[in-house]
Amino acid sequence: MGKDSKPKDAGAKGKGKGKQAGGGSDENASKGKGKSGKASDGLGTCTYVKARHILCEKQGKINEAYQKLQDGWLSNGDKVPPAEFAKLASEYSECPSGKKGGDLGWFPRGKMAGPFQDVAFATQIGATSAPFKSTHGYHIILCEGRKN
């Protein structure tokens, strides 16, 4: 029985979220396991997320933006205020949403590409993801809300 349960768990979580947890912070690694005991956080159950993001083609540029977030808030354990994240998105993001402070509004599961969706739905409200790569480039996400 132990052999049967391990491959199922590894297959379910190892492919989609393993990359994100490995490329993100330790916080994201634990957040990605919404089903494993914390139903109250809504990570595994919500169907909509409200988010802002920064998108850069080059890893160096997204790392520079993330360093500003680290220096200003994250290194102190603080949450990045949405208005401050919006300023950085306007400055750094190469996505058309950058002109709106990176605001993506509310979006359902299934609308965004794999890695982006995985990180957006695994990030707690008010938290900022570590930089990660998708098919469109490098991102940082700020989760502003979640609902069913």
Automatic annotation (TrEMBL):
Protein name per its UniProtKB record: Peptidyl-prolyl cis-trans isomerase
Reaction it catalyzes: [protein]-peptidylproline (omega=180) = [protein]-peptidylproline (omega=0)
PpiC domain span: 46-145
UniProt-listed Enzyme Commission number(s): 5.2.1.8
GO biological process, one term: rRNA processing
Keyword entries, A-Z: Isomerase, Rotamase
Feature: compositional bias, Basic and acidic residues: 1-12
InterPro entries: PIN4 (IPR043323), PPIase_dom_sf (IPR046357), PPIase_PpiC (IPR000297), PPIase_PpiC_CS (IPR023058)
SUPFAM superfamilies: FKBP-like (SSF54534)
Any one GO molecular function term: DNA binding
Renumbered residue ranges of the record's region Disordered: 1-43
Name of encoding gene: LOC105120940
Pfam families xrefs: Rotamase
